[in-house]
Amino acid sequence: xxxxxxxxxxxxxxxxxxxxxxxxxxxxxxxxxxxxxxxxxxxxxxxxxxxxxxxxxxxxxxxxxxxxxxxxxxxxxxxxxxxxxxxxxxxxxxxxxxxxxxxxxxxxxxxxxxxxxxxxxxxxxxxxxxxxxxxxxxxxxxxxxxxxxxxxxxxxxxxxxxxxxxxxxxxxxxxxxxxxxxxxxxxxxxxxxxxxxxxxxxxxxxxxxxxxxxxxxxxxxxxxxxxxxxxxxxxxxxxxxxxxxxxxxxxxxxxxxxxxxxxx
Length: 264
Hints:
By secondary structure, the protein is of the alpha+beta class. The protein folds into three domains: 2-54; 58-171, Band 7 domain (Tetrahydropterin Synthase, Chain A, 2-Layer Sandwich); 175-263, no CATH class. Helices cover 32% and strands 23% of the residues. It has seven helices and ten strands. The chain has helices at residues 2-9, 95-98, 103-122, 133-151, 173-193, 198-206, 260-263; strands at residues 14-17, 21-27, 30-35, 38-41, 47-49, 53-54, 58-68, 74-85, 156-158, 164-171. The strands form three sheets. Strands 2, 3, 5 and 6 form a four-stranded antiparallel sheet that branches. Strands 7, 8, 9 and 10 form a four-stranded antiparallel sheet that branches. 17% of the residues are buried.
């Protein structure tokens, strides 16, 4: 029955747009309006139609490279964006051009806006903060609001909620190695601080066992959790004399608090 109506209806100007589709209508060769989904009528003498346009859910999977954090660390970020074409929100002067574009062109427009918005949002956070799920959720929510406000006039509307999903955030390899080294150094410093032997910290720095820390002087470790040793300044960086192998026993202060295997 549906096929019969379509066949005979075309002769008198009856048109049909499938579900989740609209059809642009031209009058005298110029864009006039969109109709659908469902049946609608056009004047066969003065009007013609374009092929149907999908206004259902569109899924864009994008990869953005060299996205810089606040401390200029480079990231590669995988993002999925869910959006729809809504002709009612598009500006009248823009709509005739948008309906002529392919879905691939729509995705390219969304990708371009998302690229610029994501870079601006990520630049507000240090690299270490970008490993936080809370921060990622804030960026997703803010990027959604930004895209909805910017793309509205084009009729390309991300969903109101959960339209942006940051699937993967990959830091530069050099930064990953730096964070691994920093974690290892933090573990070593925590172990040494438990025994109260700051002379061992001095020896570790002098032997470059903990490389790069001597440049920080009073802010030795840069880890706030080690508050008991962060104010320690190595003797070779201060004006005070230092006895490298001094110990509590040599000063008459009683036995060392270190286990025997450590003090040896």
